[in-house]
Structures are given as structure tokens and as C-alpha cells.
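User: Show me a protein chain along with its predicted structure.
Assistant: Here is one chain, sequence first, then C-alpha cells.
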Amino acid sequence: MIRQIAVLCPDPAEPTYTTGTPAPIGAYRTLFAAFGVEVIAHPWVDPVPSGVDGVLATLAWGYHFQPQLWDQILATWDPSLPLVNPPQVLRWNTSKTYLQELGASGVTVIPTLTPAVASAEMLSAACDAFGTEDLVIKPLVSAGSHRTVRHRRGDPVPDPAVGAMVQPFLPSVNSEGELSLFYFAGRFSHAVRKRAAASDFRVQPQFGGLFETLVPEGEALHLAEAVLAAAPAGIVYARIDLIRRLDGRLALMELEAIEPDLYFAQSPDGGRGFAAAVLSHIAGQRETPPAAL
């Protein structure tokens, strides 16, 4: 029987995210208590304590500040301790080069280049390749729009950066917005629409972004399911962000399988489907069925 799970949380030495942890941890404790399971908060940088039955990485905020340590932890994860999502999925999802991989498999994605950002000529060539005057540059390992910038042709060149990605800026982020679809154990749960403020291009609330509950149409559902089908096996929870490209096609912006905000308040069941999927995965790894109260 599953009695206790650990939720990986920010490094206590990194102040950027630690103050935001208590509220979501409290929500997880309430959610999993309905299944008779205790939740403990545990820094992702520290060894997981013995006695827990499984581990969630959903609050491992700040892993992108220490990517080598993050990768080492995942690469050496003890397979006898179920991690949700599995470590091989989290490693794959850490670098946004997965977008190019999914694109090569036939999934419609945002056009993405991964050069060393070093010259005006390179950025101008990217504008030409995308058919736009406006780019977005972000690190390949990033979260929460960290070090993400908008660049117009002719702007000063950003500091040289190896490990960056370049994409066209998509005006639909301010109109139709990002469409975020949530899947638990491969099944659609709920969706939200996130729009950037008119003066910005980032949808996070700290930048003025707004969100609302969404009932996705067939185009979005079909694409999201194609993304999951092309992604590595074993994904228990995922947020799939879609956006309208310059050519009018809906495309994958990001598949977040590490630490997404899951918007339980917009979920019809308040997140119980998520909890059941997590516990079922852990139980399957431990060959013990979960029991809901």
C-alpha cells in the first residue's frame, strides 16, 4: 500500500522559487490525503529519504539553474524508487531540442533553430528562414521564461549564448493565445487558454499574462494526442502548449513533463484524475494497487 510520496521542491539555497512552494504543497497534501497518502516536500538537490513509496518532480523549480546536477540525479536514479514522470522522460524533456525531434517525427511544431547566438548576420538569417522580422530567443534548458528575449531584426545582438534556441515571434500569443491541454495517464483532463499582455510576449502571470478555462476543439485535441504518441513512453502527466504559427497551423510550443502548473482549479475533478494516475504508476512499479478512500 502506498503511504507516502515525496514531491521534489526548489533548492533551499535558491531564493527565486522557495517562497512559492507552501501553497502548492498544501494543495498536493489535500489532494493525496483523499487517497490515504501523505505528501512530504523534499529539495530536489538532496537524496530522497528512505521510506517513501514514490517521488513526484512537479515542484522541482530551479532545476534549470543547475542542469548538470539535475541530469546527474536523473541518470543515476535508483530504479527501485518510482519517479513520476520516469527519469528517462524527464531527461528527454529537459532540453528543448525535443521539439526538433518531434518535428522530425511528423508533429507540427514551432520552427526552431539551435545555433550559437553570436552575430547579427546569424539572427538576420533566422529572420529570413522564418519569414519574419521578429524572433524569440531562449535557452534550451529553461523554465518560466527565464532569459527569454524578443529580438527584432536590427536590434543589438544579445550576449553570445551557446545552448540557445531561436524561434519566430508568433503574434497569436496576444490574440488566440497559448492553448494548454493537460493529460493524465494518456487521457485528456482539462485545458486553459493563456494570453500574453498586449505589451509583452510571455504568458506567465508575473508578466501580466491572463488565463481562462478552455474547451478545446478537435484540431487542438488531435495535435495534442499526436504529440503524446510521438513522445517517449511512460509519460504520466503532461501539459501540452499549442500556438498558432505564422502559416495559420496550430503547432506545439512546448511539452512540459517536468514541473508544469497543472491548473487543478480548472479541472472538473479538482485533480483527482492526476492523483489517481500518479498512484497507479507508482503501484505498477511496486506491483501493488493504489487504494482510494
